[in-house]
Structures are given as C-alpha cells and as structure tokens.
Amino acid sequence: MAEKNNQKDLREEIEVPEGMSARIEDNVLIIKKDSEELIRKINAKVATKVEGNKIILEAKQATKNKKKMFGTMKAHIKNMITGLSEKFKYKLEVANVHFPMNVSLDKEANILVVKNFLGERKDRRIKLVDGVEVKIDKNVIEIIGSDIEKAGQCAANIEKGTKVRNKDRRIFQDGIFIVDKPRRSFS
Does the model's pTM come out above 0.85? Predict the structure, then answer.
C-alpha cells in the first residue's frame, strides 16, 4: 500500500538544438544532424514522443524501476544530442618501460596493430569499433566519435588488448591506458 503512495507521474521535455532533427520509427529514436545520425531503441516503460523540436518522455505512475528507466532514457538522449553537437573524445597513452612498442593503424581492416609489446614476436591486433575516428600521434591515441558508447568501447578494447597477464604489474607497467575521457580526467 505504501508503494502506491510513492508513485507519481514523470515528464521531461528535452530541447532538440537547431540544425538537428528527431523522429521515432518502429520503437527507435533517430536523431540526425547533417549526414550523421544516432539511433537508440526506446524502452517500453517510458512513453517517448517527438513534438516539434522537443523530445517528450513520460512515465505514468512511476515505480522505482520505471524511475530508473526514465533517468537512463533521459541520459541517453542527452548524450546523443551532445555527441552530435560536440563529439566525445577519449585519450589513451602508450606506456612502455621494458621494450619500445610501436603502434600503427590499419584503416582498411579497422585494426590497431601493436608491435613489440613486452618483446612479443607476434603483433597484437586490436579490433576497433566502426563509427569512431582514431588518431595516433607518437605515444598518444585519440578516439573521437558521436556515439559515447562506441567511443568508450573502442577505448576499452585498446586498453584491454594490451593487458599484461601472468607478470608482476608493479614491474611490468607497459600498456596503453585511458588517461582522459568525456567529463572526467585522470591526469
């Protein structure tokens, strides 16, 4: 009975900036700017509609679970709008203590090639995510993309691809590490 009293209706209007358009097709929200578009599946628990230049989210009699979904959907939409206007940028740094490591990009195969990692004879080939731009400048790798999830996944794949296994991490500090990400900085 107490649960019923805590339920209330939630409503949020998110402004779509000028130069962007939003539409809903087959339970999918599409936000487009110029030739670039981001797609997000809509959660059934949150009623989503587009009216003019606003995206309206509604949740009737929101339970605890519905409130979580509402907040998540709101954050996803704001990230889509931010990504199309500014782009998200991750910065990784190549750190080598023991062996000089070479990093190169194979654009056709969409793979990052790491040579001589910990003196290994075989190259480490890290698959990159489609839809992100990767730039290499000496020992700094920049990942730029409109979709925060794709950019973040690409950065995580690179960091994970140079993980040191079965060695003392205090001594073997080699690898490629995320040093800067959107809205947070480690340096």
Answer: no
